[in-house]
Amino acid sequence: MTDTPQKGEVRLPKSLRGRFAALRNVWPFLKLVWQASPTLTLIAALLRLIRAVLPVAALWFGKLIIDEVVRLIGMENGPDTMLNWWQAGYADALLLYLAAEFGLAILSDVTGRLIGLTDSLLSERLSVSSSIKLMEHAATLDLEDFEDTEFQDQLDRARRQTSGRMTLTGQLLNQMQDIITVLTFAGGLVVYNPWLIVLLILALIPAFLGETYFNAQTYSLDYQRTPARRELDYIRQTAASVDTAKEVKIFGLSRFLIDRYRFLSESFFKANRRIAEQRALWGGVFTTIGTVGYYLAYVWIIGRTLTGQLTIGDLTFLSASFRRLRTLLEGLLTSFSTTAAQALYLDDLFGFFKVAPEIASPENPVPLPVPIKSGFVFEDVGFRYPGAEKWAVRHLSFELQAGETLALVGENGAGKTTLVKLLARLYDPDEGRILLDGRDLREFDIDELRGAMGVIFQDFVRFNLSASDNIAVGRISERDNRARIEEAAARSLAAQVITGLPAGYDQMIGKRFRNGVELSGGEWQKVAIARAYMRGAEVLILDEPTAALDARSEYEVFLRFKELSEGKTAILISHRFSSVRMADRILVLANGRVEAIGTHEELLAAGGRYAELFELQAAGYR
Ligand SMILES: Nc1ncnc2c1ncn2[C@@H]1O[C@H](COP(=O)(O)OP(=O)(O)OP(=O)(O)O)[C@@H](O)[C@H]1O
């Protein structure tokens, strides 16, 4: 193959071009299986070891039986009834062989069943353990990773591995079993004539290479199509889900979505069909070559039997061995290339595990100051979202004093949420630094730092959980502390909402599950704000989760927030100036920079953007 892709040719990403290089994943995968359940893995391996030698043993006894029968038939003046045969002791050997073959048949059935059982248990264990590993690893990664589309593709592929590739365990173990069986059969053949094996292998190699090639092609296609497949999933979800049904109906979007789905899946189909057709064609050619090899060997065996060099038992043993070997080798080679293909897919899973977070705790973190003494200082902080040209915030310098409530105002896109994310170390600044009591945020333990903060974002998560759990997520370790949950609910005004629900605090909210009750936008916000109180953190941040509250509720929520944040450091973001003016100081952001900072009165007196926006809103109410 040349290095320039031909028209229509699908190329693997560079790192995956070595078709068999992916087999390096087999070992880590087996380790994963072992970790999922050592006992089951051992049992599965042992059972296969036993089962591996059964076929050749059974065939051998078959040969002995036939030779014995032929010998007995050829006896002159032999007994004429079965009973006489038996009594004369002539049938002893025959009976022994029969009993042995019968025993092997039973053993084969039993081990077969047991293997099925252990495999299904093992793959279940593996599916659970790798899903858990995936979630655990995802939890360590940065927000930035999740917002990166390439990462989303990789996560998507990795997620598929945890459920889709688990047949690989059984496949690998089966291959080991088949290899042992092949070796035993081959041993038998070699005894008669080593050339038989060479003939067999030569006939099979083309099929093997063909399979491997097409598997690599299929994977490559799949790989390149991950973004499109995610889009397909997204369209399917958008076209038929509770979250979108409202707008899809009002705007009459279903036809548009369906057409887009059809268009995308059509190109999938065409590409898959091309590979499937080629595979079928070449597969047919290669199988024929295998059949030719088999019949050449068969002719040789028959010839040797006719000339008396082989017995009838040998003939049956050899021809059956040859047939079985061919099927086995064929299966083995195909499954070997399927394994190579599956191992390619595993690259995604292991690749995902290799993604390391950038935002991590230092080796020797400094202890977090409790309580905070001086507060936070932003020193010339600049941050740009990955891939973005524009700085979201830049040359940002200000102080958030311990114990003060600071309001952030600014037009859409001014950088308010970004500032909050930087403070919670969801991102690290690209320029400058953020200090807490004089130490860079990067010097603290990340979990400790986040543990001291309670942030409610404007796009807070509406968990499809009970009302009480929806509040408890603020401090999940206190989930069973009903008094704390109720107190938080009372403070955020969520209590009135929850007591009105059919099952009160135990009411499932959200429409995803049975008996779920949907809340209004403002009601959801009251529940979400309760999380901040539930958290009881030293630094409280409300990033505009009050937009859907009616004016009276927002006023009341902020009044309580002000009371509650007495002695705590707090940030609140709102577009409503009636709430904003309650803060000790107000920071006006514009284009990612600090435009002004001061009290409500100071800013009004200064007559800048704040005064202008304030006037605009006030005029609207007059
Ligand atoms: N995840 C993201 N990836 C890339 N760019 C982003 C991301 N989030 C925000 N931005 C960009 O960063 C800038 C600041 O956004 P930010 O969300 O901080 O504004 P905001 O002041 O909170 O706005 P709003 O009042 O609308 O909530 C905007 O230009 C926005 O387009």
From TrEMBL:
Keywords: ATP-binding, Cell membrane, Membrane, Nucleotide-binding, Transmembrane, Transmembrane helix, Transport. GO terms for molecular function: ABC-type oligopeptide transporter activity; ATP binding; ATP hydrolysis activity. The chain crosses the membrane at residues 179-205, 280-301. It is found in: Cell membrane. Residues 376-616 form the ABC transporter domain. It holds the Pfam family ABC_tran. The keyword Cell membrane applies. GO terms for cellular component: plasma membrane. The keyword NAD does not apply. Residues 42-341 form the ABC transmembrane type-1 domain. It is a multi-pass membrane protein. PANTHER family: ATP-BINDING CASSETTE SUB-FAMILY B MEMBER 10, MITOCHONDRIAL, ATP-DEPENDENT PERMEASE MDL1, MITOCHONDRIAL. This is ABC transporter permease/ATP-binding protein.
